[in-house]
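ok trying this again, last paste got cut off
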Amino acid sequence: MPKYTYKARDAKGNLNSGEMDVVDEHELMRELDIKGYFLINAELKNGTGGDLLGPLRKVKTKAITQFTVELSTLLNSGISLVGALEIEEDQMGEGIMKTTLGEVIKDIRNGSSFSEALAKHPKIFNKIYIGLIRAGEVSGQLDVILLDLAKFMEISEENKSKVKSALIYPGVLITVCLLVCAFLMVFVLPSFASIFASSGVELPAPTRILMDISYFMQERWYVIFGGIAFAYGMFKMWTKTKDGRYIWHGMLFKLPAIGPLISKSIISRFTRTFGALIKSSVPMLQALEILREGSDNARIEQLVDRIKLSVSEGERISDELDANEYMPTMVARMVSVGEDTGALDTMLLKVSDYYDKELDAEIKGLTSVIEPIIIVIMGVIIGAIVLAVMLPMFDMTKTVK
């Protein structure tokens, strides 16, 4: 029997690790569930993960969302889970999703629950997805949960696309600016170098500096590219360390111009995910664990850890939110009202809707302001290059006279 090493958290949020002889990952999850543990990660003792195709599995969120909506509709019409999954499998084109559904159907027929079967494919179905499916199985409202899940995924993906689009536009403008400057420095300026040399005119300081930079870019281009690659590699290594990741994720909230954009996106995702889990009747500590594992920001992970500790000690979630520097006061107040009225999930989803609108307004404001700023910067840089070239030409004109 295979031996698995695992990491799991108990009801208090403490991390535990160990080994267990089980047939597969879903049996490991079931055994840990009985002991009151929530599985986080599992690997075969020889170091190979249970999902052998894991590194190759990549399915677009849009495809998973469409599958979720269709599955909800099929279940709502009275078709059995296996029957609905078989219909979805037949409609899928050849690819990873079709293969995965075949494996899920096989596992369900062998006695696994739907959530256990999905948990064997973490590269496709994340912990939030599996947690909500498990809640739907327990409540007997799987079709309703699937519909809510599809809506949640659509909104999350839409917000992610908005942020990417907002960042791509200024990125393209900056890239064009850099390419134009590089073209002038590498291909245009050298043609003036020989003219200036033969004229015997003493070059002004700006022109000399520009010529030195142009020469360096022509002759030492590999140093520039090597330096950029090295800096990028060091940055990636730094952000993979615990401290580096923590510092960088905190800096994202405070970046000029795009910081508020990223902040609103993260807050919206945090509150919507939390609200969806609570609405689906996922136990609070388990919901917080899923929320933590589904977060992409170290500062939010730390916040969730503090909330888990507060909840386990009988304290309020809103107190931790109010004490956190990255959470606006409005979020803490809305959550406090939700705790007082017993409508925490409703308040969290309302907060998320509010920040979705704020995100739209922030994106429109950013795109309207950043374009003229970048154009002005481009004009100043290119103007400075042209001026540095023209200065010695004015002196040459005086000499000819």
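PB: full thing came through this time. The CA atoms of residues 194 and 206 lie 17 Å apart.
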